[in-house]
Each structure stands twice: as structure tokens, then as C-alpha cells.
Amino acid sequence: EKVDWDGVRPGGQLVYRFTPPSAEVKTGAPLVVREGWAAVLVSQGRVADACPPGAYKLDAPSVTALLGDDVRWNPTRSSFPVSVYYVSLREWDGQAWNVRTVADAPRGGLHGTCGFRVVDPGIFLGALIENDPNGLDSFPVTNLRNVIQTRFGDW
Questions:
Q1: Is the CB of residue 126 less than 8 Å from the CB of residue 47?
Q2: Gap between the Cα atoms of 3 and 44, Å rounded
Q3: Is the pTM higher than 0.90?
Q4: 28-48 pLDDT tens trace
């Protein structure tokens, strides 16, 4: 069972959770990380490691080394309790934002554009998971833009 995502999904994704049909990643599964993405392995709600673009094999030694004490290798086990998230590494330029509710804002509110990119996918995903107790399946670019707008509104 290959762990691979082509990076195509409407709406522009910053984060996408790969969900294998069996709900767990199979031992020996190939992990494919395409250009412009990083794969982040998460176990028990904690980030274990981030893999840059390339091809990997998720076998017992590699996953045990990544997850440490979170996973004790059992030779009879055919899968790992790990989630794989793909995080976009591309630059997101020209993201428009606006705030209309700021009391001291000039007529028409505040607005502008910003650009960003994820520099450390492990830290970025860890912050998202920490702030989303219901679990994270995907995180579109519009969600980050909404966070920016909200922060300006609070300011």
C-alpha cells in the first residue's frame, strides 16, 4: 500500500492528511513525497519527523527510529499507528485579507495582501494539531487567511 498524494485538491491546500484504506500505514509501504511538499509523520498527536521531497520506505527500523518510544516494533504487526500529513512548501503570494470591524479603521476597514510559505513543516503542523482538538484532515490556504484577518480584527 503506497503512501502517495499528487498534491491536487481544489482550493489550494497547505496541509492534507493521507488516509490509507486500512487506517494504518502498512509495514514496508513506500512513501512518496513530491516536489513542493513535505511529509510529516504524526504518532499519538505528536509530530515525529518531517520528510523532504523524495522516496522512502516505511519499514520497521526507519519508523521505529523516527517514532522512538512511541512505537515498539512487534514482528507480528503488519502496520504502524502513524498518520502521514503532506504540508505544502510553496510560496503563497498575493493572499488578500480584509477587516471591516476595527473601530478605529479608516472608512472601508483595513485590507491588504500578504505572502507566506512554511519553513518548518513539523513545527507548523504541530501548532495546527495542538490548536485543533477534533483532529485535522486538511487545512486550506483560506483557513490561514481567516486566522490573519481575525488577528488583525483582535488588534
A1: yes
A2: 19
A3: no
A4: 889 999 999 999 988 777 888
